[in-house]
Amino acid sequence: DQQVKQNSPSLSVQEGRISILNCDYTNSMFDYFLWYKKYPAEGPTFLISISSIKDKNEDGRFTVFLNKSAKHLSLHIVPSQPGDSAVYFCAASASGDMRFGAGTRLTVKP
Amino acid sequence: DTGVSQDPRHKITKRGQNVTFRCDPISEHNRLYWYRQTLGQGPEFLTYFQNEAQLEKSRLLSDRFSAERPKGSFSTLEIQRTEQGDSAMYLCASSRTGEREKLFFGSGTQLSVL
Asked: pLDDT digit string (tens) for A52-110?
């Protein structure tokens, strides 16, 4: 059962522009949402998170938006840099285990 | 803080053999998780420990899989009678109580079952 879905397997943007990665979830019990970033041959690394009581969280170039009514969250990266090229996983938690989306491969072109 | 360490990085085995993987979490983290990741998919939850207690197991964890964390420090994941469908990246992660959602992942063990 795919409770967390990332429908875009890949995204390509130009350096300096905005990258928007999207994620949808089905379980209304999820109360915490996260984005992880993964480089080849490494495990995922935590990037940014948001609690279900908030609708926005910002950390430098990264902002996560949560729309609970639509069960949708997005990650904005502004401005995008070539070093941001990686696979981005959306994750959601409802106490205990965490469910991950299938990932979106972001490529930032110089 | 040396990060989460997993051993081995790669394991190739024949179908029917048993394999064991080891995970050393970040020392002050009391929660430890095992995930499995196949190509094109996100990590799938297998099980997690709070100290030495195994608190939750996914239905993905068949009776051929067993995980232990005997002293609440390192953990092992054993797969008995491996099948080709077990081929995957096995990821270990750890976290602090109170920051349970912020997982720190190891680099994983890539298992290939021939």
From this structure: 999 999 999 999 999 999 999 999 999 999 999 999 999 998 876 788 999 999 999 99
Residue in the block written with tokens 């959601």: A92
pLDDT (tens digit per residue) in B49-105: 999 988 888 877 789 999 999 888 999 999 999 999 999 999 999 998 777 678 999
List CB contacts of A36: < 8 A, sequence separation 6 or more.
A44, A45, A46, A47, A88, A89, A91, A100, B103, B105
Give the pair of three-digit tokens for residue B43.
């990590």
Could you tell me the two tokens for A83? 């070093």
- Least Cα distance to A36 among A107, A103, A108 occurs for A103
Q: Which of A102, A34, A29, A24 is nearest to A70 (CA)?
A: A24
3 state DSSP class of B84: helix
pLDDT-derived band of residue A9, with 50, 70 and 90 as boundaries?
very high
Q: Does residue B103 sit at the A interface (CB-CB below 8 Å)? A: yes
- The verdict on A4 touching B (C-beta cutoff 8 Å) is yes
> Interior CA angle at B37 toward B54 and B94, to 5°?
40
A103 touches chain B (CB under 8 A): yes
Q: List CB contacts (< 8 A) between A101 and chain B.
A: 42
With beta carbons less than 8 A apart as the criterion, state whether A78 and A59 touch: no
